[in-house]
Amino acid sequence: MDSDVLIQTENLHVRFSRQKEPDIYAVRSLNLTLKEKETLALVGESGSGKTTTGQTLVRLLRPNLGTIRFNGEDVSRIRGKSLARYHSRAQLIFQDPFASLNPFHTVSYHLQRPLRRLRKLSSKEAREACSELLAQVGLTPHATFENKYPHELSGGQRQRVAIARSLAANPLFIVADEPISMLDVSLRAGILQLLESLQAKQGLTYLYITHDLASARYLSQRIAVLYGGSLAEIATAEDLVQHPAHPYTQLLLQASVQSPGKEAVPLPEKHPGAPDLSMNRPGCPFAPRCLYAWKKCEEEMPQLIPIAPHHKVACFLTSSPPEKPNNVQGP
Ligand code: SF4
């Protein structure tokens, strides 16, 4: 493991069991590496496994198989005090700030609780640190916000409180799960700029989860595309947007151009719809929807292979295309 790697997953699997229903295979064989102070965007539609991946990396969920290393330490199955220590280093910003803040508690309560619990500050120290946190996320003067309840704040202010709460633990790593998707378009740039400036000042590492390639390109150095719980493509942000190689990435890009900031619009594909995560069948997870699929795609799982420096793709079109394709037009 390189010395500047902060978090690394190896062969990560997360499966959910359901009574009288097939299991959900939410994350499959996932290998990801995040370097210190890097932002990696995890992009995909609803149901692609993004949120499960994020929640597993911060250990709100436990993987069924595989390992998560944080600063070289295996945190995949830690419990009790070790897990509490990890939660002060790895935090999550939820998609819906209204749902993630308790409506019966004030802003001050939401921020002081983790300050006392995770940083072991006294009441006086927690009050002072609370004011500093509000200033860091642009909620000034702090006295205006400290005693407000979530419903008394705007959507953008609520998300700033949620970001301040994640900072209260003094983390190194933050998973930001669709942090702007529930906000008005006019507020989104402000939250992205806040995340950017906090990273520059505090040396944070982000996993930025989104369905929106435009914001992924703005905020991140690299983009990983997830489909059916597996990595379809990973590259530098510019390379992925300029030279998408996987048919699914190409669909996402078309959707993002046609409907910026929104979930996918109808596009040419065999069977539109979210991936079926209950299927543990062989072959490429995207095959049921892929216009270019052929027999091999139904039988074998394509591996991630490099096609350029820092650019890997899991698709047979790039590794072993058919000699006489029927419907292959090329990516
Ligand atoms: Fe499509 Fe086959 Fe490539 Fe999967 S491996 S994306 S099914 S062409």
How would you summarize the topology of this molecule?
Elements: E1 5-18, E2 21-35, E3 39-43, H1 50-57, E4 65-70, E5 73-74, H2 80-87, E6 90-93, H3 97-100, H4 107-117, H5 123-136, H6 142-146, H7 155-168, E7 173-177, H8 185-202, E8 205-210, H9 213-219, E9 222-227, E10 230-236, H10 237-242, H11 247-258, H12 295-299, E11 305-308, E12 311-313, H13 316-319
Parallel strand pairs: 3-8, 3-9, 6-7, 7-8
Antiparallel strand pairs: 1-2, 1-4, 4-5, 9-10, 10-12, 11-12
Bound molecules: iron/sulfur cluster.
Iron/sulfur cluster is lined by residues 246-247, 284, 286-287, 290, 292-293, 297, 302, 315-317.
Which descriptors apply to this entry?
35% helix, globular, 8-stranded mixed β-sheet, binds iron/sulfur cluster, Rossmann fold, 23% strand, 2 domains, 4-stranded antiparallel β-sheet, alpha/beta, single chain, 331 residues
Structural summary, described in words:
The structure is a single chain. With 331 residues, the protein is an alpha/beta fold. It folds into 2 domains: 5-89 and 171-261 and 307-315, P-loop containing nucleotide triphosphate hydrolases (Rossmann fold), CATH 3.40.50.300; 105-170. The chain is built from 13 helices and 12 strands. It has helices at 50-57, 80-87, 97-100, 107-117, 123-136, 142-146, 155-168, 185-202, 213-219, 237-242, 247-258, 295-299, 316-319, and strands at 5-18, 21-35, 39-43, 65-70, 73-74, 90-93, 173-177, 205-210, 222-227, 230-236, 305-308, 311-313. It has an 8-stranded mixed β-sheet, with helices on both faces. Strands 2-1-4-5 form a 4-stranded antiparallel β-sheet, with helices on one face. A hairpin with a 2-residue loop joins strand 11 and strand 12. The relative contact order is 0.14. The mean pLDDT is 89. The protein binds iron/sulfur cluster (SF4).
